[in-house]
Amino acid sequence: MGEAYFYHLTRQTVDQALLPLLSKCLSNSWRVVIRGHNPQAMASLNDKLWQGPSDTFVPHGLAGDAGEADQPILLTIAGQSYPHDCLICIDGADVSAQEVEKAKRVCVVFQNENRSDMQTARNQWKSLTQAGLAAKYWSQAQGSWELQAQKSAV
Description:
Elements: E1 3-9, H1 14-27, E2 32-36, H2 39-51, E3 61-62, E4 73-77, E5 86-89, H3 97-102, E6 105-111, H4 115-130, E7 134-139, E8 146-151
Parallel strand pairs: 1-6, 1-7, 2-4, 2-5, 3-4, 5-6
Antiparallel strand pairs: 7-8
């Protein structure tokens, strides 16, 4: 059974925060799906990941592009489903308890200044923990990532 990690961004953009998460996933040989809502925002994230420093490059692609099945990291929009070990939800993309149960890990990444995404993350925390799933809430408010709350699986 997987668990959900909630990452509250206060000092980084989503693309900056994703790089170390994606590197850890790749070091575990996990296939990653990044889910958002807006196709243009996912295309922009795709561009940012391609244009990042060469020492932080992560192999990835957009859903619908040629070779999507071979991509270790696939950027998708809500409503699309692809096999994965880790699901990363950004921009308030939803995740179900069943998805957490099937994945090795689910990450919900949200920015402090986006009140809508923060509320979505709060609702997801409540929903997933009430379903008996393990969850951890991480914040970078003090500079480095610190565990702020956790719930064990029931």
